[in-house]
Amino acid sequence: MVDFHQNGNIATLHNLRTRSLQEMTYELETFAQTRKMSLILPCLYSELETEAMPKILSELSKVTYLHRVIVGLDRANEEQFRHARQFFEGLNQNHIVIWNDSPRMLELGERLTRMGLAPAEQGKGKNVWSSIGYLIGCQDSAVMAIHDCDILTYTNELLARLIYPVANPTFPYQVAKGYYARIGNDKLNGRVTRLLVSPLLIALKRVVGDRDYLDYLRSFRYPLSGEFAMRTNILPDLRIPSDWGLEIGVLSEAWRNLAPKAVCQVEIADSYDHKHQSLSPEDAATGLNRMSTDICKAIFRKLAADGTIFTTNVFRTLKATYYRSALDLLDAYYSDAQMNGLTVDRHAEEASIELFAENIVRAGQTFLDNPQEIPFIATWNRVHAADPDFLRDMQAAALADAKDYQ
Fold first, then answer.
1. Keywords in UniProt for this one (predicted)?
2. Which residues are 144's β-sheet partners?
3. What is this structure's pTM?
4. Nearest in space to 133 (alpha carbons), one of 379, 403, 374
């Protein structure tokens, strides 16, 4: 995706193919002498059994500038946790596998519940939040990166490019969001970004008017990417959504807490392929059906927090405006795909748009019906204020699990 365009809202750091990975790695090694860097891997046990994870592990074993790797392991029993610890022994860095379903961790979860601070649901958001808590407790890293564990096209250059903007002490960026072209198997992918988020932001601008926040979100080439890096000083006040709105929620937090000049997006791969979620039109609680609803709610919540007034009629108008915008963009995507020898199933794409249009209204009605809903997990600053020993005890529990289940 070679270009050099800047739109003026946030900095876009392109890959102009003019610099080697070796040169960038050398600089990162230099930065690491005074700015320790850690990587968080939110992981399902099932992902260890895919073709993606062994390749990710092999690539990470070549990385010389990381201080620590934290693996947050979900949906694992005792035997699977033991296997996961063996699996990650191939990492050359200091690392730990946090068994989120261990008796010790579940007991800590009950402690949060008694304080009214427990995450509302299990999932990636809680996994990332718990791993961030462990990292905060370590108190030794200046930079943190996160990426998914199902990337079929992973190379360690992806990590180097992702972490470089916040690791470089001469750069002003505190948050870097990764982007890439979503193509694979001769198809144009990235349905939720292309067919929901982009046209929804266009429609919102037409219906509720100009909002700096909407322009900010529209600046991101791939707002739903699971890859981002941050300077750790902002982590204790970070509000992590507990549902599928994680990626939008993190961008919204960067908007809330930082100046636009402290946020950038960086091109981290020529192409990117990973596990694809099914549309699940028959089940609103799974797949892209659930994801699209949660993403809409995350955007509506943020706009409401900034003073936008929503009503049932607004959501009805938004649905109609979105539908027209999405079909117009689909024409452009279809032409783009054809010109590049890629395929687009127009029937399936239009069926997705119809489902997403319904979910805009569903998300809006849910938002109106539950004004008291608290969608974010408590910040780690709040947890520490409520229970000053919690971070220490969580770190001790993770280390005890590592010792007891060798």
1. Transferase
2. 38, 230
3. 0.94
4. 379
